[in-house]
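Lab meeting, item 3. Inverse folding demo.
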């Protein structure tokens, strides 16, 4: 049965049976000191505010029986899925694949690659490992969503303007309705968070909708 969600630029009605929650890259490598985010010069404490809203939506989605999908950005230990353009750019304190306090930076299977304990996937919840910023590129996400009849995505995670935005843009072009949960997303650069959300709702919702985590939880009750 369709349920209303209060959102910008307009409220919408979603069929929960055809809706998935996708939590983008809430990994130690982005949220904790010593990981990929910090090697790039970011203040990683800025992302912590998104954890409790993500958890509230995660709990509500699980209770409502929604499909919950987690994503992780990272690379194979041999870096065969990491293009030179990504490995070489910038001047990080440690490059992707280098050893760090949470293991090799942004490498699958290392402690830093794991999702933060508060949002740890439960057995049976799909975890999409992605080498890029978008969750559709070089992953099985598209076929998974098609097989489950999903048409609407509730999206949260980090960072708003990078992996959340790239995934929403990819999803929008594939025909998914995306509802981005503003306070359950975060950026190292607060003005980019705000701009990223504004870009989604501008022009009548050019990439989708933006709602609060509270509005999502209310819809899931
Ligand atoms: C970044 C991400 N910012 N998950 N990754 O490199 O947003």
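The presenter then showed the designed sequence:
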């Amino acid at each position: 049965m369709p349920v209303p969600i209060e959102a910008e630029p307009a409220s919408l009605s979603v069929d929960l049976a055809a809706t998935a929650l996708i939590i983008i890259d809430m990994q130690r490598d982005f949220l904790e000191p010593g990981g990929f985010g910090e090697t790039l010069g970011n203040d990683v404490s800025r992302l912590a505010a998104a954890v409790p809203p993500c958890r509230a939506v995660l709990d509500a989605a699980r209770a409502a029986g929604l499909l919950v999908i987690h994503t992780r950005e990272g690379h194979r230990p041999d870096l065969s899925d990491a293009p030179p353009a990504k490995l070489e750019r910038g001047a990080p304190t440690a490059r992707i694949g280098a050893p760090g306090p949470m293991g090799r930076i942004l490498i699958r299977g290392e402690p830093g690659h794991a999702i933060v304990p508060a949002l740890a996937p439960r057995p049976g919840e799909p975890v999409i490992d992605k080498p890029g910023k978008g969750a559709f590129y070089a992953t099985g996400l598209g076929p998974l969503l098609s097989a489950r009849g999903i048409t609407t995505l509730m999206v949260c995670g980090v960072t708003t303007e990078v992996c959340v935005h790239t995934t929403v843009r990819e999803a929008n072009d594939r025909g998914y309705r995306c509802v981005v949960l503003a306070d359950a997303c975060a950026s190292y650069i607060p003005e980019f968070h705000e701009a990223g959300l504004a870009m989604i709702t501008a022009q009548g919702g050019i990439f989708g909708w933006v709602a609060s985590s509270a509005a999502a939880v209310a819809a899931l009750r």
